[in-house]
Amino acid sequence: MQWVDLLLTLACCIAVLLLPRVSEAKTHVFKIAPEQAYNGMLESTIPPVLTIDDGDTVVFNTVMLLEGKLTADMTVRDLIALRKDIQERGNGSYAFTGPFYVNGAEPGDTLEIRIKSIVPGDWGVSYIYPDEMKIGGLPEGFREGWFKTLRYSSDKKTAEFEPGIVVKLRPFLGTMALAPRPGEKRPPAVPDYFAGNMDNKELIAGTTLFVPVNVPGGLFLAADAHGCQGDGEVCITASETWFESVELEFVVRKNLKLERPMAETPTHWIVMGFHADLNEAMKIALRDSIEFLMTHKKLSREEAYVLCSLAVDFRVTQIVDGNKGIHGMIPKEIFVKETSDMA
Predict the structure, then answer these.
(1) Could you report the per-residue pLDDT of 263-308, keeping only the tens digit for each?
(2) Residue 225 · residue 240 · CB < 8 Å
(3) Peptide bond preceding 99: is omega within 30 degrees of 0, i.e. cis?
(4) CATH number of the domain to which 183 belongs
(5) Which of 240, 259, 278 is the last residue of a domain?
(6) How many domains does the chain fold into?
(7) Which helix (H) or strand (E) holds 173?
(8) Given 259, 281, 312, which residue is the final one in a domain?
(9) Residue 116 domain-assigned?
(10) Whether the Cβ atoms of residue 186 and residue 180 lie closer than 8 Å to each other
(11) Could you tell me which of 121, 164, 315, 143 has the C-alpha nearest to residue 233?
C-alpha cells in the first residue's frame, strides 16, 4: 500500500506540473503624444489602443486639455479661440489616453481600477470663462474671465497661489471612463453610470474605483489631469495639468454588480450620484448608501437610513459638469469588526 500511495502522489505531482500555467500579471508601459490622444465622444466603437489581461497594470501618461495645446502663458481670449477652433473641427476638450481593452471584461461585470501612483506635470492652469459663455457655478459677475497659472514645487507637493497662500497638491484623474452602452454617444464632460468626468478629488493614489462594464473589454479611457481641486470645482476648473505617469491595475470582478461607480479609500467607501438636478444627485447617493449598508453590513433599511444621518458625509463633488455630483463618504472606522465588503 505504501508503494501505491507513493505512486499516486507522484502521479498527482506530475499532473500538476503538466497543467498549463496561468499567465502572470504584466505591467504595460503606454505613452502617447498629444496628436495620438482621442478627442471625441464616449461610445462603444472607439478602437482600442492597448489590450491587456485581467490583473495587468498599465503605466501611462496623459496630455493637457484642448488637444494638449493649453499652455501656461495663455490669455482668456487665447483660450476661447483655441476652444472654438477645436469645437469647429468636431473635437472635444478632453484629450484621452486609451481606450484599453481588458480581456475577460463582459457586460454585467465590474471593472476594479486600482490607482497605484500618479506623477503630475510641472504646472497647472485654472480659469474662469467670461460671462458671455454662461459657464460655471457663478456664470455672472466675471465679465472678462480670468486665467491663472500655478507653478508646482520641485517635489510636486505644493503650489504657491499668491505670496502667503500655498495649496497642497493632491493629483487625481478628473475623468476615468468606460464605454457607455452600445449605440450611445455620450459627451465626455457629463458623468454618468459609465463614470466619465466625475471630478471626484478622493480618487488619488491608494484608492480604488469600481465601474460597471457595458461592452466587451470595458474600453477604459483617462483624461483631465488635476493637480488639486476643492469639492465643487465651482469655477469649472481645477488646477488643470498633465500627468507624466499614472499607474493603474485592472481587475475584472464577476462577483460584483453595480449600477454606477463606487470607490474605496483606506478609510471610506464612496458612493456617487450624478444628475442634472443636485437634489436628485443627492437622493441617488443616499439610496446607494442605504443599499450598500443593507447589502454589506446586513442592516435594515431603517437602520441604514438613520446611520447615514449619523455617520455618512455627503459632499458636493462638482456642480459644473452637466450632471452634477454628490458623493457619500461611508467611514470604515465605525465598523468595529471589519469585513471584506467589496471582495
Answers:
(1) 999 999 999 999 999 999 999 999 999 999 999 999 999 999 999 9
(2) yes
(3) yes
(4) 2.60.120.580
(5) 259
(6) 2
(7) strand 172-177
(8) 259
(9) yes
(10) yes
(11) 315
